[in-house]
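Sorry to interrupt, but I need a hand with the structure work. I would like you to pick a protein and set down its sequence and fold. Please put the record directly below this note.
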Amino acid sequence: MNSKNIGNSYEREIAKKLSKWFTGNDNELVCWRHVSSGSIGTIRKKKGLSGNNVDGDFQCLDSTYESFFNKFYMDSKSLTDINLFMINPKNQKSNKLLNEWKKVVKDADDKIPIMFVKVRDDRSIPEFIMLPDDDVSIPLNIDSFIKYDFLDMNYNFILILQDDFFRSNNWEDFVKQIKFY
C-alpha cells in the first residue's frame, strides 16, 4: 500500500474515533475525512482566500458539532518512525514529528491545532495526540502526558495517548474549557 492510501486509511480511522467521541455511538458518523484532505484549504490560503471551512483533514457532517470544528484544526499523521527525544530541534532529518507539528501549527492559523499520530513501523508506540502548550490552557482529565518545551521556538506541545484522551474528555466540556491567555 502506498503512503497516500495509508494516510487516507488512517484519516478514516480517526474520523470514526471522533464520531464515536462526539456521539458515544459506534454506528453514527458525524465527521469524515476531507476528500482533498486539507489541500483545498492550503491552496486557497496561498491565494489569500479563506480556507476555514475546508482546512485540516476532517469535515463536520452534522452541524451539532460545528463549534468543535470552528475552534480546532485537526490533522492526522501515519508516520513510519519518529524521534521522541528531539534533542536538537533544528535537526531536520531526525525530527520528522516536530517538523510535521510545525506545519500543522502554521496551517492552523487562528484555530487550535490537534495532530493525531500513528507510528506504523513501531507498534510499541501507542497512537497519541499532540496539542499546543503555549497559547492555550487545556484542562484535561488525564493523569499523564509528555510536555515538550523548546526555548527558542513557538511550537511547544503536550503529547497524550489517544485512548486516554478519548476516554477522559467529553467534547462539549473540552470546547467550553479552552482558555486563551
